Amino acid sequence: MIQSYTINVMEKWQLKAKRKFRQKGITLDQVGEKLGGLKKSAMSLKLNAHCACDDQEMILIANMLDMTLDELVSDDPIYRSDAPRKQEAARKFYNSYQDLNDDQKIMILQLMETMTDE
């Protein structure tokens, strides 16, 4: 049987922020208060990428998470200069992988497991 693997190399900064806020027990109300008294609904729009945050807001969010702005956006494809190249490489790999037979897929997965064990 072939195992299923999910590779999540990129994450929008808003999703990362929401995940980190949940981990720290910080509510949207608290975030909104730090950002100048914004309501929970406004924060929800911003952290669901329906409304843009300005640079200062992003810096305040990063500070609340004890992160630098670079750390906050480091996995966001919009802020990565190599994102298009990596996305294309991932797409090519995925398409090629789909064309392999089960034995070939197992060999690839075993090779990948040895690479991650290091």
What is the structural class?
mainly alpha
CATH topology of the largest domain: 434 Repressor (Amino-terminal Domain)
- Helical residues, percent: 55-70%
Looking at the overall shape, the CATH architecture of the largest domain is Orthogonal Bundle
CATH H level, superfamily name of the largest domain: lambda repressor-like DNA-binding domains
What is the CATH class designation of the largest domain?
Mainly Alpha
Q: Biggest sheet, in brief?
A: none
The low-confidence runs, each spanning 5 or more residues with pLDDT under 50, are: 1-9
Number of helices: 7
- Supply the number of structural domains: 2
Determine the strand fraction and express it as a percent band. Answer: under 5%
Mean pLDDT: 82
- Overall shape: elongated
Write the layout of secondary structure elements.
Layout lengths: L12 H12 L3 H7 L5 H8 L7 H10 L4 H5 L9 H16 L3 H15 L2
Helix pairs in contact: 2-3
Task: Give structural attributes.
disordered N terminus, 0% strand, mainly alpha, 434 Repressor (Amino-terminal Domain), 2 domains, elongated, 118 residues
Description:
This protein is an all-alpha fold. It folds into two domains: 13-79, 434 Repressor (Amino-terminal Domain), CATH 1.10.260.40; 83-116. The chain contains seven helices and no strands. Helix 2 (28-34) packs across helix 3. The longest helix has 16 residues, at 83-98. The chain is elongated, with a radius of gyration of 19 Å. The model is unreliable at 1-9 (pLDDT under 50).
